[in-house]
Amino acid sequence: MTHQLIEKSLKEISDAINLGFGTCLKELKLLADRMVAVEKKVGITNRGGSSDDRQLTTTSNPPKPANEPGVSTKTSPKIAEKRVTRQSVRKSQD
């Protein structure tokens, strides 16, 4: 390789690194902007420090999550029957 080819290759590498670094800086800026927006939405008032130092402010009680349709919170009879069976087996082993 000639001196000119080496310089050209190094310049191309340098340009690629600069382009990548610039892209990285842009992404970091966008991420910081998104974090600020989320912090405002959630109500974080204290920036910096550990997560224990952050304070959440709420103006009202947060809404309770609604149950998903088609999902039951009751125990099915089959599961209840298995529990009873396991409990009776444990008692008989003691």
Write a structural description.
The chain has 94 residues and is an all-alpha fold. It has a domain at 1-59. The protein is 61% helix and 0% strand. The chain has helices at 3-42, 77-93. The chain starts with a helix and ends with a helix. The mean pLDDT is 77.
Biggest sheet descriptor: none
| Structure class | mainly alpha
Approximate strand percentage: under 5%
H/E series: HH
The beta-strand count equals: 0
Number of helices in the DSSP assignment: 2
Mean pLDDT: 77
The geometry reads as elongated
> Approximately how much helix is present in the residues?
55-70%
Radius of gyration: 30 Å
Multimer state: single chain
Low-confidence stretches: none
N/C terminus separation: 84 Å
Protein name: (rape) hypothetical protein
Region (Disordered): 43-94
Organism: Brassica napus
Any chance you could write out the topology, listing elements then pairs?
Blueprint: H1 3-42, H2 77-93
State the main characteristics.
single chain, 94 residues, mainly alpha, 2 helices, 61% helix, elongated
Outline of the structure:
This protein has helices spanning 3-42, 77-93.
